[in-house]
Structure formats: structure tokens, C-alpha cells
Amino acid sequence: MQRFRRNEKNRDCRFPTGVSNYSHLLKAHLLKAHLLKASAAGLASLAMFLAGPGEATAATVTKLNQALVSGGNVSSFKVTGDGTYVLFSADAETDGVDELYSVARSGGTAVKLSRSLTPPEMIPQFWISPDYSRVIYAVEGSVSELISIPVGGGSGTVLDSGNVADFMGISADSSLVVYREYPVLPGPAEMYSIPIGGGSATLLSQGSATGAGAINASLTPDGATVLFTYQASSGGPTELYKAPIGGGSIVKLSGTLPAGYDVGLAFFASDDSSRAFFTVNNNFGLNTYSYYSAPLAGGALVDLAPTMTSFYSDYFWLMDSGNTFAFSAGDGSFTQGEIYTVPVTGGSLTKISGTPDPSAAVVNPYSIAVSPDLSTTVFRSDLLTPGTYELFAAQSGGGTPVRLNSALAPGGTLLGRPLISPDSSIVAYDAEQDGPPFTNMYASAIDGAWNLQLSAPFTGTVGVVSSDKKFSGDSQWLGFLRSDATNLDLKIVPATGGDEITASAPLASVNSWFYEFELAGDASWAVYRAEQDTEGTAELYFSNISGPCAPAARLTCSTSKKDIFKIRYAGASSTKNKLLFKSIGLSQETLTSDFGDPTGTGQTFTLCLYDADTGGSLYSFDMEVPGGGSCAGKPCWSASSRGFKFKDKTKVPLNDGAKTIALTAGAAGRGKIALKASSSNLPLPAPNLPSFFNANPTVMVQLNESSTGNCWEALFQASDIKANTGTQFKALRR
């Protein structure tokens, strides 16, 4: 049995070959899966063009890292938020010395970003700026450094070289880096900010401590303020302060603490940067916490739970558009647990986790997920049956929590932390919902309206999905790892049910590990780290899941007054295959620049087709036409004051059969797009006999331009379709 591994540090899950009831071994490990946060709008699920029952077309996989030295491994990676670069650390040149590299997401030559290192120096961590332009990395060795460099390579700048302790964050505008350093060893730590491109560091903390000094920090979402904890004197309290990120007056937020009390490690600011929230821990009363809210602009400190004198939890969050504070609380013995809410300005507590049997019910704080819109808290509890843990959703105002999972089969249980889609509509979770030995992936509407199994049924005697799951940013797709006795794969599946897409290549052996993955916002690609080529060697791979078209239609394409779409099918790779697509009277004003500049190289026009069917849609085919190029001895593309034209007079056009393209700019209702293609190179899908498309009830055509990201679409309803046979398709929309 192959193995999942999230990373090398205490998060491994090893599944030996031949173990038939191994899924119970997962539970302690899978609870450590983390919650991924994102934001986007959702749309109905779309599945890839079917290649077989329960399985969709596999992806094309490309290795991203360079050849590694003997014993070398890729140890971690991050993808820039715009999907342009993959940053990764690897001991590629010297075994045991991790260095930092950058590579284009779709492949190419990896560029070393870090300076040359000498053992025992290495790079333990790195961070990408919010604007994706620079990466900050730490070097550990005889001195501890913090270095800034452009993500694509270039001249690096040492921000600080000495006794850097921790990187604390980058300002929202990507201009400043906040970090903690020991000015003198041994001695207290202090908090600093420094321009991301280098310059003079500014002291943010007090600079006169005899105790531990600066301990932890958090940046407000607006990037203007740094919150930090500080112990000014040895044996004195740890207190919470704020300081402008660029330097200035320091203000204590935590008031006067009673003897023996300290501000805890957990604190954050509200999304609007108006309030700070923090815990105060009584170190003499084991794990006893109080919660406080402090207005950052000044004002009275608010005790959010004054009536609770003894409870265990340091897990808290916001709900109700940030107006409500929520926290989990228990008696410290894990025999009882509850979730409470209170207004951020103080008031009465409301228990939202239901009314369980007080002798048995437990809400595990590490199984809690909060919807991105802050409306709903999802948690795991034995609320209904003592000892049987199920999944529930609760609102900030209280009421009866809604059970999200279907009734559990005997012996069944929920495993990892639930994951909520970016649009806050779907909850994904892994469970033995239908009983052991299989662990499957499930989805539920966040209001409990429906529940379904997402992962395909296992056919052998063993099978498991991992708790490391990720939604695409558009909420239409879910990625997860799936393993049976012989195969371990990255799977992508529509979030409301459909066929699995295999998004990874086979691993080197049944003893190989799969470590981690990231998924594109539209699920059109993934990047993952696995022992794919060589057992025991972790490397980095790019998976082109859907080819040039996303497996789901885009959400914000321009429309037109009139659309025409025709296909004539004469057989696979026939020279008589033909396609016509026209959009006349583009609804929005269209500038020439909206089409990019196809007379040069580096951009691509892609025509994508989505064929709707009951319960979803089928992504059917794509055709690509690149910019630049020579057609019949002349440039393929020409420009005019109103747009661009493509013409290929060769007998068998090479660019997926494209013969002519006309892109015409104009005021709203005046722009036009026309595309004609034919020949054996036209990649038409085979008809879905007896008709060409399912068209149940729609067919969507989208033309995407790569350099600007613009797209134009035509959606044909059943009433628009004039012919749909095994040899042709005609549609006209007015």
C-alpha cells in the first residue's frame, strides 16, 4: 500500500502493503490536516469529457525541478497566487543543504534564488509577498539571515544578518517585512520592520526589556499596524501591544493583568482592522483562559466571557461579518466541550453547539471549520449519540445545529477536519460514513440540504482518501489523495458529484510517498510533490489537468447580441471536418488591446466547448491558435486600427485546423469575433450518438485569450439548437 505524507515533520501517514483494516491507523494523523482559506464565486459543477465509467481523462504531467544530487529531495514548495511561479526548496546541489529555487509553473529551467550556502547553512522557510513579486527566505547557520529577492530571479538583498529569530509577516501592500531579532545574545528579542527591497530597519517594540522581550506578532489586515506580545521584565507578565508598521508610538492593549496572568500566543485583528482579540492565560490555573477584545483606535477593554471562570481552549474565531466572537470551551479533561458566541463589544454568551448529554458530549476544537463568509461554524461532536462523532453546522445566533453527514453505518466515523468551499456553500469531509474498512470523501450542502459521496467506490478490500483536501478557488472542484492496495493518485472531482479525474502520474512503487499538492483556482492544473520517478526521492511536478481549457467554464466572459456555432463531422481526423463560430455585436465596449497583440509570440487563443448534461456538464474539446507564426510563407496574424486577423491558406492548416480568425473592436454592440476551421488537424470530439452533443439543455462555447485573461462566450439553449445529429451541430442565438 502506498503512503500519504504531508511533510517530513511529524505529519506522516504510512500504509503498509496488505493491511486490510488499516484505516483506523489514520485517525490520529489525519486530524492534523489543515484548513485552506480562499475566496471566489461558485457555479454548477462540470466534469471532463468521459474516458470510462467513474474515471475522466488523465492529466499531462511535467517534472519541474532539475536533476538532484544523490540523496537530494525537494522538501517544500509554494505557488505564487497568480499561478506564474513555483518556489521550492531542495538539496539539489549538496545533500542535506536545502536551497531555494524558482521555476515557471508550467515548466522550464529552474533558477536558484538563494545565495551559495556552506554546510551547515540551509534554508528552512520562505515566504511570498502579497503582490507575488518577491520572496523572503531565511538562512540558518553561523548567522541567521533574512534575504529578499524577485520571485523570478535577480539580485538578492540581505535585509538582516545576525541573530534573526523569526519572520513575522509582510505588509498588505508588499512594502515592509516584519521580523523578530536578538540584537545581542543572550538577551531579549525585539520586533523590527524593514523595506522589502532593503534599507534601514525600524524598531517597533520597546527596546529596553530585561525579560524575554518580543515573543510573537500579527499584522492587521490593512497592513498598517503590528500587534505583538512582549515581556518587559524577567518574571513579569507577557502583554499585548500595537505599533505602526513603519514605526511610532507603542500602545499597550491588554490593560493591567492580575498577578500570574499572561497574554497567550493566540491573537489577531478583525478583518476591518478595528479590533484586536486575544487570550489571557492563568498559568497558576492550568490551561484556564479568558478572552478579550480591544478597539485599536482606543477605548475600553472588553472581557468577552466574564461569567466563565474555568475552561480549556485557546481556539477562537469571528462570525457574523466579524460582529460576533466565537470560541470553544471545555473542562480540560476532554469529556465535555461546547462552542459559544458573544458580540465583539461584549454581552451575553450564546451556546451554539447544541444541548448534548453533559456527561459525554465533546466538541473537538481541532475539528472546527469556519465558512469564509463567517456565517457558519462546522464542527465534529457526539451531540446526538455519546461516543459517535458526527458533523454539524451552527449559526452565530444559536439554535439547533444541523447534522451534515448521513447516518453512519456501524463502526463508521468522521476523520479529519472538514473543509468549506470558498463560496461557503459546500462542506467536504473524509469519513468511514458507510462503515470500515473504506475511508471515502463526502460533500454536504452547508445547510444540510444534501449529502453525497464524492470519491469513486473502492473495488478491493482496502481503500482510503487522505484528509489533505483542497477546493478550487471557484468552489467547483475538490482535490484529494486516493489510495488502494496498488495505486496512489491525486484525484480531482466535481464538488457536487461526478467522475474523478486522475491528476497525477503513477508513483515509482507501492512503497513511494505522496507529500502535498496545490490546485489552480479553476482546477485546470495542479502542482504536487511526490516520489514519482524514484522511490525515496521527493520531486516536484506540474499536472496539466485539462489541457488549455479549464475543466469548468469560466464565470465572467463577455457576451454578444447574436451567436452562431456550427460543426460538420466527417470522421476522426477527417479532412472534411469543419467548425464555425461567430459572436456578433459584443455586448461590452471592446478595445483593440482587449485582444492582446497576437502579431507577436507569447499569447494563445483557445476555443473551449462545454456540453451540458443532466446533473452537470461535459468538457468536450478545445482548439488552440498561438500568436505570431508563419502561415504559407506569410505572417499568420495582421493588425489594423480595429483589431486583428488570422489567415492560413495552407491546404492542411496546422494550428488545430484554424483557417481564418477576425477580431474586431468597437463600441458596445459593435465588436465582432469570427473563427473558421477545417482539416484533419481540427480536434473535434466524437459524436455522442445518436446526437453530436448531449445539449441537455445547453452548449457553451468560450474563446479565451491568454495574455489579457479576457474571454468571450456564447450559451446556446435548447431552443437555439437547429440541428444536432451524429454528423452535424448547428445553433443560432439572437
Question: What would you note in describing this structure?
Answer:
By secondary structure, the chain is mostly beta strands. Helices cover 1% and strands 44% of the residues. The protein contains 1 helix and 60 strands. It has an 8-stranded antiparallel beta sheet, with no helix packed on it. Strands 4, 5, 39, 40, 41, 42 and 43 form a 7-stranded mixed beta sheet that branches. β44 and β45 form a beta hairpin. It starts with a strand and ends with a strand. The N terminus is likely disordered.
Mean pLDDT: 85
Proportion of helical residues: under 10%
Spatial ordering of strands, largest sheet: 53-54-55-56-48-47-60-59
What structural class do the secondary elements suggest? Answer: mainly beta
Parts with pLDDT < 50 across at least 5 consecutive residues: 1-57
Global outline: globular
Q: Biggest sheet, open or closed, and with what strands and sense? A: 8 strands, antiparallel
Total strand segments: 60
Strand content range: 35-45%
Please tell me how large the radius of gyration is.
Answer: 28 Å
- Tally of alpha and pi helices: 1
CA distance, first residue to last residue: 56 Å
